[in-house]
Amino acid sequence: MGRHRMAIAAALAVGLAIPGTQLPAAAAPTPGTDFFSSFDSDDSLPTWTNTVETDAAGKPRMSGVTGNPDSGGIPGNINDTIVDVTANGDNPPNETVRRVIDGDATTKWLVFEPTGWVRAQLETPATVVHYALTSANDVPERDPKDWELQGSTDGDTWVTLDTQTGQDFPERFQTKEYRFSNSTEYLHYRLNITANHGTDIVQLADLQLSNGDTTPKPPTPMYSVVDNGPAGSPTAKANAGWSGKHALRYSGGQTVDDRGYAYNKIFDVDIAVTATSELSYLIFPELTKGDLDYPSTYAAIDLAFDDGTYLSDLDAADQYGFGLSPQAQGTTKSLYADQWNIKRTSLGDVAAGKRIDRILIGYDSTTGPGTFRGWVDDIRVTANPPRPTYDRVSDYALTTRGTNSTFDFSRGNTFPATAVPHGFNFWTPMTNAGSNSWLYQYQRDNNADNRPTIQAFTASHEPSPWIGDRQTFQVMPSTATDTPNANRTARALAFQHANETAKPHYYGVTFDNGLKTEIAPTDHAAMFRFTFTGDRGNLIFDNLNNQGGLTLNSDGTVTGFSDTRLGSGATRMFVYGTVDRPVVAHGGLTGGGGDNVTGYLAFDTSTAKVVTLRIATSLISLDQARKNLALEIAENDTFDSVRARAQDLWDDKLKVIEVEGATDEQLVTLYSNLYRLFLYPNSAHENVGTADAPEWKHAVQSSTSSTLPPGTTPTETGADVVAGKVYVNNGFWDTYRTTWPAYALFSPTMAGELVDGFVQQYKDGGWVSRWSAPGYRNLMTGTSSDVSFADVYVKGVRNFDVRAAYDAAVRNATVVPPGNPNNSSVGRKGLQDSIFRGYTSTAVSEGVSWGLEGYINDFGIANMAAELADDPETPEADRARYREEAEYFRSRALNYVHAFDPAIDFFQGRDASGQWKSTPETYEPHVWGHEHDYTETNGWNFAFHVPHDGQGLASLYGGREALAEKLDEFFATPETGTFPGSYGGIIHEMREARDVRMGMWGFSNQVSHHIPWMYNYAGQPAKTQKIVREVLSRLYLGSEIGQGYAGDEDNGETSAWYLFSALGLYPLQVGSENYVIGSPLFTKATVHLDNGKKIVVNAPNNSADNVYVQGLKVNGKKHDQTWISHDMLADGAVLDFSMGSSPSSWGSGEKALPTSLTPSGEAPQPLSDTPVTGGPAALSDDTSTTVTPVEAPVQWAVEGTPEKVTHYTLTSGPDDGTDPAGWSLQGSYDGDTWTTIDSRTNEQFTWRLQTRSFAVEQPGRYLHYRLTSEGGSSAPVLAEVELLATASPACTETVSGDVKGPLKIDSGVTCLSGATVKGPVTVRSGAALHAVDSTISGPVAVNGAEAVVLQKVQIGGPLAVSHVTGEVSIERTTVKGPVVLTQNQAPVIAAGSVGGPLSCSRNAVAPTDNGVPNSVKGPTSGQCKDL
């Protein structure tokens, strides 16, 4: 009868025992238009159990399916006859005792004891002679070691049947079998575990009992029977239905390779279908046995009509547009496994006028053999389904969206924050008032009756449950007639979500007892309205813990302070509130967070039922909290006026986008995503002036401190209170990808204020937070405020302190962070070495992630520096510095090449010596973490982490086609979620990535959000379009039951991904002004810009099928490129998309490719340090942990063939007053004759251990370099010196020895090394010549080449070089004939000799000898006249 069953009632037990049974007439047909059942005793119960449907011809609607499949268990398995299973304990909700008999090795039973027992009761006595145990997923020490298997006839007296000692399970998920002699039938069996392998926890994945019978079981109908719901779920309450205590289970197995199907009858009904009739239900398909074909999702409720037709044959669609047949539900992947999913369909659209005769459950799949199991609940048919009204855009926003989440699986991991945009406080209900992380869980926290309960309403400042809440203050109404009970469970009030309104500007709930609570927010304050039902009302005040203070006065004033969750700079919060009704009793309470923080006010509500609480907070002082309340809620304000102002603020934000061609569900998704975007980050400043003349100050929290600032009192902070607006609560690792670009596009004025608010952190504490909560949290990788703020700047936003923002980014990128530099709370980890090596070594945890994020941030800094250099507001004296820093950071953005291992075609870690972590034989890209290389994912999801330089990445893989093939393989390789690697166990991101069901792509986590857009770089934009539209169609569903996201939403990032994607745009190359183009979701979307202009996106023939772009016009002009600049949009634009159902050639040409740092077809070539000998070792040891004084000129000799040094860096020492203020850098070809190639005066190093970059004024391929200090400290101290050069391109052909001419070079890079060419050399367009220590007897002619580099070359005839697009360097070269240089870029001709005239004309930059003159026997003319 299925893998296991629980007896819940006598009638249900009968249904379990006999397949194909019609139950007693519990649900006789009732004519009408409505029907409902949640499968509880007070609802309609099924008419049939385990009974197959027969069609009008009498043919069973079942084929290739059985109710009792061969589960792959041991022969004679009788677990399907178990009706009850108990244990000495378990670990709800997921590691419960029912898991030990579910036949699924990926689940387990766990008890927090060193010993344990499991007891199973059978339907009827049976003789067990064989059993098996399966080890669970982690920690082998928890496995059973010694045990007894016992039998009992009555459950009291036990007989030992088998004893095992010293057993072990070397592998995870390993099944071991045991046989013994037994001839007695027992009704009860018990596994009594007397020892494990040394921990205080016992775990077991599966226990199988067998009677030894190897005869195949006969097929039975698919099971469809009421039980007590799923045994476990990462998000739902275990052992319950959706709304009640029971649900209908469907289960069985498919036995055939092709189509298998089964439709069972559930209810005998008589329901008329009207034009407005709707069917709805909840369905929970289990991920049975971890089968990644997801067979349990091929299920749906079906309806049999009185005319012989079925709903599954009528092309009915659910509320998202997916077909509602069982097979369509499975193939569209619209159901999440191991979670409840809501489905609705308009019956009137396909069946108006019909009558429903039977309600069925159907399974229909072509996935092949496998087992399936799931549950349905709350089946409803109604003629008048309730429809919410949406009068304003803010009415669409739903704040409970994303709250059906837990530690184990995120569908957003949000909470229903009621606030104003970017507000100082959140106000939220709490289903668990003792939690500072998961404040509100949509269903998981339900009570014993499976009803959600609220334990408190709180002021919150939580940016994410993974970060935790801080600075909290709770209030909870109570109807107690005497002193209320502050115990959180006792004071909790049950409610239904149907009686809850959760909007950005308003939260309201009516509890089951009739009491009502409402909240309307302001920036620093809120108004609560409580409507009581009895003669007395109470407000319980409380907090998370006893870290705080509370004073309740008889005049109705409430004051206090909160120190909850101090850390990362958080300071004391002060609270002031007043009530509008006389207080009849008040006092302290026990049982809550603590005696210091728990108390109550009581009111006489016998006649007037409403009590209003006005409350405000401050981080400055209690007086400021009182002032904040007065500034934001006037005495004559009502609850409705406060709510109206908050709604106006949200409408003003949300109306930035309006769309046509959207369903209500899509509009809820759209505006809820905009709400999340503008909810964060949050103000932490306060008006200490007046409403008419505001003066903004803030308590400084920009630190890592976990203690209160000295001088803090119960009424005033001890923190510094300084001028300025500051913002907090942002995880830049997440938000840089889409959130900050969204602010720049949708709300640029506010974007500038937000940037300035985080730059204030830099001014207050010296750094911008990597993860602000509120100060410096040591979390995640990358200093991604750098690229975030650069993105805002290059898109034209100027209303912030641009220079300070740039300086903050430069500090992150060039200064060794304080403390342990490999594990710092600010700055870039490992920078003391990585800045010189070009990669972050394995000495830093998640070093690959640190490195790759760093290159993206360097890209943003480079673009910001370049724009600053061109900004008219930039002082002329600063422009040269910005230009050379732009060049330096642009090169650093290419350093990803140092983290790419060509032997495996993946990025992986390498140690300080350059050794790769894994060999090609041992590297496994599907393993998460890879021994702490990657953050929250695996090598596959980091294989494309170069969004700023797609063509450079393509080059590493072998070209654009190879990049596309790599992406194809990525999306075709399934993520199983079973390779935890260095994470040590399965984390929520692994389950979420698995359930995205799009290959390895972990769309559920931000680090992977850019990947499908990389197809644009590969010239295959149609694949981007297909993938993105699939995500938009099915991974933002379930808003109405607290879902809505595929993973953590994270401060607006996943929301902003949707917003951009729905517009057909994406900020792939964040930190630049460009967007790539995708596939718009709606037929029309309008973005209302700050400047009054509009971006209109038209796609009139858009549909769920027409997802491919056939053509695009921008402002009426054909646009074939797959990218568009911000400038083209910022002043308003009209984008007209032509859409179709098949991929087109649009955007596939080379000229259509998005911009990239590396030109198409070329390899990325970052600057690299020139290897040298000589000089103090501390200056060339690739670390700033060693320093040396520079008292005399320091001289180095270049090792090997010299490259052209174009930049150099100096790194300051650790102490103030030791920096050089001026210096000269000299070069020499022989070590005797020196020329100054760069000199500096009046330079400054702002920070200790700062690396500054400088461009060489006269670069060349010198053999020797010398640095001479010329100012500042008498003995300046440096930590490192780099001489940076771009490596010469790889040689296509290398020539050495004697060569008979002529030598014609038509393509590629030809290198002469120690060669003697007897004849002329010709270099033609597109080719390059690099010659070292060689002789050419004939003339050399170069025309249109990419480069010509001659070092110590003897040329026996004339040299003519013209129209070269790249480098022209002629150094230490003897030319016996004339030299002509024409129309080149910036030729260098130095330290050589010319046997004839030297003529130069029309070169972009006049040729130079870098101060090392040539010997010229003939006349010099043109640009070379003075050489």
From TrEMBL:
<protein>
    <submittedName>
        <fullName>Alpha-1 2-mannosidase</fullName>
    </submittedName>
</protein>
<dbReference type="GO" id="GO:0005975">
    <property type="term" value="P:carbohydrate metabolic process"/>
</dbReference>
<keyword id="KW-0732">Signal</keyword>
<dbReference type="InterPro" id="IPR041371">
    <property type="entry name" value="GH92_N"/>
</dbReference>
<dbReference type="InterPro" id="IPR008928">
    <property type="entry name" value="6-hairpin_glycosidase_sf"/>
</dbReference>
<dbReference type="Pfam" id="PF07971">
    <property type="entry name" value="Glyco_hydro_92"/>
</dbReference>
<feature type="domain" description="F5/8 type C">
    <location>
        <begin position="66"/>
        <end position="161"/>
    </location>
</feature>
<feature type="compositionally biased region" description="Polar residues">
    <location>
        <begin position="1411"/>
        <end position="1427"/>
    </location>
</feature>
<dbReference type="InterPro" id="IPR050883">
    <property type="entry name" value="PNGase"/>
</dbReference>
<dbReference type="GO" id="GO:0030246">
    <property type="term" value="F:carbohydrate binding"/>
</dbReference>
<dbReference type="GO" id="GO:0000224">
    <property type="term" value="F:peptide-N4-(N-acetyl-beta-glucosaminyl)asparagine amidase activity"/>
</dbReference>
<feature type="region of interest" description="Disordered">
    <location>
        <begin position="1145"/>
        <end position="1187"/>
    </location>
</feature>
<dbReference type="InterPro" id="IPR008979">
    <property type="entry name" value="Galactose-bd-like_sf"/>
</dbReference>
<dbReference type="InterPro" id="IPR014718">
    <property type="entry name" value="GH-type_carb-bd"/>
</dbReference>
<feature type="region of interest" description="Disordered">
    <location>
        <begin position="53"/>
        <end position="76"/>
    </location>
</feature>
<dbReference type="GO" id="GO:0005829">
    <property type="term" value="C:cytosol"/>
</dbReference>
<dbReference type="Pfam" id="PF00754">
    <property type="entry name" value="F5_F8_type_C"/>
</dbReference>
<dbReference type="Pfam" id="PF17678">
    <property type="entry name" value="Glyco_hydro_92N"/>
</dbReference>
<feature type="signal peptide">
    <location>
        <begin position="1"/>
        <end position="27"/>
    </location>
</feature>
<feature type="region of interest" description="Disordered">
    <location>
        <begin position="1404"/>
        <end position="1427"/>
    </location>
</feature>
<dbReference type="InterPro" id="IPR000421">
    <property type="entry name" value="FA58C"/>
</dbReference>
<dbReference type="InterPro" id="IPR005887">
    <property type="entry name" value="GH92_a_mannosidase_put"/>
</dbReference>
<dbReference type="InterPro" id="IPR012939">
    <property type="entry name" value="Glyco_hydro_92"/>
</dbReference>
<dbReference type="GO" id="GO:0006516">
    <property type="term" value="P:glycoprotein catabolic process"/>
</dbReference>
